[in-house]
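[Automated response] Your request has been received and processed.

Submitted sequence:
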Amino acid sequence: MQTQLKKAEERMDRRIDHMCKEFSEIRAGRANPAVLDKVKVDYYGTPTPVNQLAAVSVAEARVLTIQPWDISVLRPIEKAIQTSDIGINPQNDGKMIRLIFPPLTEDRRKEIVKDVQKISEDTKVQIRNVRRDTIEKLKAMKKGGELTEDDLKLGEKKTQELTDKFTKQIDKLSADKQKEILEI
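Generated structure:
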């Protein structure tokens, strides 16, 4: 029973980590190097992440600079950013690329908050799916004679406690991200 609960906790933890990664990729009006994580540059025929080809840094609150280690990849980086879905036009000065994040409109902020809520709700559904799977496994163990009725009830209770703990964590992370977006 303990191994099932441990596995459930690890799976739930991975769901939270994934949600946090998705939150970090949301463009909230501030310069954040994580928005470039999905951008791949064709570097000698190999799709390569921008952060492996250049130094990416936050110059100001809303300005991201990309300084390639090899100047010859400046144009391919610029092109990759233009074709990506981050929605910012790169400014190339021949030595580095600047990404200037425009301030968000009120409507755009509300859209982003809805996206955050959707990601949070999807993560809660995944957490509940882990709970369901774990309880099914515990019931199968009871049916197979590995657990007693009391152990099954205890396992179900502990699984629900884990679910509640992670659901509260999701709510807090979501509220923090929404507050960040609305206050910028």
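Summary generated for your ticket: Strands lie at 40-43, 46-49, 54-60, 63-68, 90-92, 97-100. The two ends are 46 Å apart (CA to CA).
If you did not submit this request, please reply to this message.
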